[in-house]
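Quick one, T. Sequence first:
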Amino acid sequence: MKYIINVLFMNYYSEYLKKCNIINNIDDNNLLCSDVNDNYKTYIDKVSKKIISENTQNITNKKNKESKINSQIYQENADNYKIAPKEHVSIKKWDKNSRPREKLLMQGPDSLTDAELIAILIGSGTGKQTAVDLARTILKDCDNNLMQLARMSVGMLKNNYKGIGEAKAVSIVAALELGRRRRKLDASEIVKIKNSQDVYEIMHYFLSDISYEEFWVILLDRSSNVIVKKRVSKGGVSGALVDVRNILKLAIDFLASSIVLCHNHPSGNKNPSKQDILLTKKIKDAASLMDILVLDHIIIAKNNYYSFADDGRI
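Structure tokens:
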């Protein structure tokens, strides 16, 4: 193999020497003589470098050509390569059926999401957010819970959200207050306590939204009709002091045959504490001395509740 390669190079080498006028009228068979051997080696190196250089240049030219073609294709189809930035689209430009006000008029208020209803109250958004987007942001911060939103003050809404000024914050707070008052009217329609759910429906208006503990008592006649409901204690975040004598005095004054105890846990944990259990027993034992029944003790934890009677603890 080496001999064949040498012979091939010899042929090229002969032509090279003649072109370079190194030797003239030379016989190819004499090329392996010692006096030209050094020139032969130099020629091999030169040819090798030339081949490598030519191959490299060819590869480079091919890549440049492919790059130019790809560039042309990209330019011709530029729209397919571009990702359009997300643009703020005003609600006015939305489809008519998707706009909150029009949707309410055509499909009724039940068809709107909480965010869409709040967007109607807000009226307008910011340069980067629609009223619906802004409403979604507010709800997200409240874990999408209207009870938590109802605890936010005008100042909290105004100071924490760009695009919510005093007027918009007042509108939101006023609307939620109307909702609370409506629940109060619904609760006042319940005049007879049949189960723990009735107690919750009556009392959650007073206790589900506040950030401190309150203790209430519901006084009932012999038919379990509601005589009156009274707050007997108002405390802090962790508890409220309760005077057992005051509860019994109310029951005697209103000639109540039975009572239902009720208080809230602002933390959202509905389970009774050790103090809750001890206080319930203390009130029950004291009331029994006067033939007054303690029918239940309800703990309201935001939108949930716990019943001592349902759990067999009273």
